[in-house]
Specification:
Blueprint: H1 3-68, H2 71-85, H3 92-103, E1 112-119, E2 124-128, H4 137-142, H5 146-152, E3 157-159, E4 173-181, E5 188-197, H6 199-207, E6 216-221, E7 227-230, H7 240-243, E8 255-260, E9 265-272, E10 284-290, H8 291-295, H9 297-342, H10 357-415, H11 419-436, E11 442-444, H12 445-462, E12 467-472, E13 481-483, H13 487-498, E14 506-515, E15 518-525, H14 532-537, H15 548-552, H16 557-574, E16 579-584, E17 590-597
Parallel strand pairs: 12-14
Antiparallel strand pairs: 1-2, 1-5, 3-4, 4-5, 6-7, 6-10, 8-9, 9-10, 11-13, 14-15, 15-17, 16-17
Protein name: histidine kinase
GO molecular function: phosphorelay sensor kinase activity
EC number: 2.7.13.3
């Protein structure tokens, strides 16, 4: 993974993601805190509402209880029962009396809209503030609430709007149904059905719903979720469990939670009234408040902070992509350039743009590469001068060595009074010295072979009938150049080392071979060969730190110095890809191979 990806991933891991997680955690915790605090406040409000509703129903029960035991009301039940015993209906006088009694007693309580009195056999009498038909006895007796009324045995049963289909479903119409007992004998006299219109209920919820909290809604629901009352008069008769599907459980204790109500995020609070002793069967109040109203300015501030945070993160990301990425790209380009320089490409340069520190760094890198290039050139020049000095030293070692051997041979012939041979050898020696004294370091193969032939003819005078030689060279290779005095030391080594102890006639073969991109020169002899120990002393060296006399030993200097010098000269002149190879087996002769490049131009 490159540096750019690492920095970007680090930016995400240590800046973006932590900020996002922190923001999410703060937002979630703040939501929960707001929900809890406002839920607690709403619960206090619902407790107050519950007390007011309790007192409302308590007052209504108190009024109905008061008049139910009055002689005037109980007298109506007895009169109806007496008429029934005579199998006759009440007279108009009785009816007027009943109406007057009810209006002067029960109907004096303003929330009561109508009253219906039933005896045990179904006779009934009703009175009300407005005209309207009373609930028939058979309908009441067959209703689902009738058994519950009887079970309460005189205690009231409150019925909300639409709670039972047999009763009315008008808005705010509450019914109180109860069994009426004889005050003295506690016998069952009949039943009473009161219809209430609680305007006080509107006042109760209105007092807890100010203009600033206009988004708040209060619902009065029964145990099955039926909405008996809605202060906004919109969802009465609906089921709150359907409106808050899967969110509200009326079986749970008082609690608050967030939910969508009519496609709006809201805070919902449930509070059980716990006024069953008043005849209210498991009713509850549900408070629904828009979340915007709950969170208020805090939500706005949090959104503003979140927006500012995202804007900051955006600019941080832009900064990372523009500025940090630019620096990383500079580092990557510099790394790539350094690798090129490491591979030897000193022409590598970095682009310099701008006037900041990155441009100064690029200029510094380019200056460093130029300095390294100059130093390498200086080292190369010094190495070339060193190589030339070594080459001149090696040549200076070869010339005296060869001259000494030749003069020694002439001296021997002179002692033997062989003047003609001395003359010929001096002539050949002059030719050799003329070639050796030339300033050129490289000569053509043609001249090298002529030099070698002169040398071999000199040696034939000295070692007459002891060896013969042959030279084989393709004409097309004679114009290629070679370091002068390359072959002569090898032939000299063969004569001095290979032929001295033998009793048979020696043979030296010089062969020039075209080997594609280079030329191979083979010098073979059928002498005594070289032992493995001595052959190791002629091993090709790539460095010259060890003196030759230490490698060869004092007794071997004359025989090994020329050969080793030839190998070193070729290495210095042409490089490590070229040089000399020796193959020899004791008693079977020696083969020396020189490898040089094909070069038709004049050398150093």
């Amino acid at each position: 993974m490159n540096l750019n990806k690492k920095v970007f991933i680090g930016f995400l891991m240590f800046i973006i993601i932590p900020l996002f997680v922190l923001g999410s955690a703060v937002y979630t915790v703040s939501q929960q805190l707001i929900e809890k605090k406002y839920g607690d406040l709403t619960e206090v409000t619902l407790q107050a509402i519950s007390r007011n509703i309790y007192y409302m129903f308590k007052e209504a029960n108190y009024f109905s209880d008061f008049w139910m035991v009055k002689d005037s009301i109980q007298g109506i039940y007895r009169t109806i029962d007496e008429v029934n015993q005579k199998d006759a209906s009440p007279s108009s006088y009785d009816l007027n009396t009943f109406d007057t009694l009810l209006r002067g007693s029960i109907l004096t309580y303003s929330p009561i809209q109508s009253v219906v009195i039933y005896n045990n056999v179904g006779k009934s009498f009703s009175a009300g503030r407005t005209s309207g038909s009373a609930l028939p006895w058979k309908v009441l007796m067959n209703s689902t609430a009738f058994e519950q009324i009887k079970e309460l045995n005189g205690s009231p049963l409150w019925i909300g709007p639409s709670e039972y289909k047999e009763f009315g479903s008008g808005r705010g119409d509450f019914y109180q149904a109860r069994m009426v007992k004889d005050f003295w004998t506690m016998d069952n006299l009949g039943f009473m059905l009161l219809k209430f219109k609680f305007s006080e209920l509107d006042q109760i919820f209105k007092s807890f719903n100010t203009d600033e909290e206009s988004a708040k809604r209060y619902l009065l629901v029964n145990q099955s979720g039926l909405i008996l009352y809605d202060n906004k008069q919109q969802v009465e008769g609906a089921n709150v469990l359907q409106l808050l599907l899967g969110k509200l459980d009326l079986g749970q204790a008082n609690h608050s939670f967030q939910a969508n109500f009519q496609n709006e995020k809201s805070l919902v609070s449930l509070y059980h009234l716990q006024i069953n002793q008043m005849g209210v069967q498991d009713w509850s109040v549900v408070s629904i408040t828009s979340w915007k109203s709950v969170a208020g300015e805090i939500e706005t501030i949090m959104k503003l902070v979140a927006g500012i945070t995202f804007v900051c993160l955006f600019f941080a990301l832009v900064y990372n992509l523009v500025f940090v990425r630019r620096i990383i790209q500079l580092i990557l380009r510099m790394l790539s350039s350094m690798k090129k320089v490491e591979r030897g490409d000193l022409t590598t340069r970095m682009e310099e743009s701008g006037k900041d520190e990155t441009s100064a760094l690029a200029r510094g890198f380019n200056s460093l590469v130029v300095r390294v290039e100059d130093l390498l050139e200086e080292v190369k020049r010094q190495q070339d001068r060193k190589n030339k000095a070594e080459l001149m030293l090696l040549q200076a070692q070869i010339k005296p060595h060869f001259l000494f051997n030749t003069l020694e041979s002439i001296n021997v012939l002179a002692i033997q009074n062989q003047g003609k041979k001395v003359s010929q050898m001096v002539y050949r020696l002059g030719n050799l010295l003329r070639i050796g004294m030339e300033s050129r370091e490289e000569i053509s193969l043609r001249h090298e072979l002529e030099h070698l032939r002169s040398y071999l003819e000199i040696q034939e005078f000295r070692f007459e009938d002891q060896f013969q030689y042959e030279i084989e060279a393709p004409p097309e290779l004679l114009d290629f150049y070679i370091l002068k005095l390359t072959l002569q030391p090898l032939v000299e080594n063969a004569i001095q080392h290979g032929f001295e102890p033998i009793t048979y006639k020696g043979l030296i073969s010089i062969q020039v071979v075209d080997e594609g991109e280079h030329i191979g020169l083979y010098v073979r002899d059928n002498g005594i060969g070289i032992s493995a120990d001595k052959l190791a002393k002629f091993h090709y060296k790539t460095e010259l730190e060890t003196p030759f006399d230490e490698i060869l030993g004092a007794n071997e200097e004359r025989r090994g110095l020329g050969v080793s010098n030839v190998a070193d000269r070729i290495r210095i002149q042409y490089g490590t890809a070229y040089g000399m190879f020796i193959c020899s087996q004791e008693g079977h002769g020696t083969t020396m191979k020189i490898v040089i490049p094909k070069n038709k131009g004049e050398g150093l």
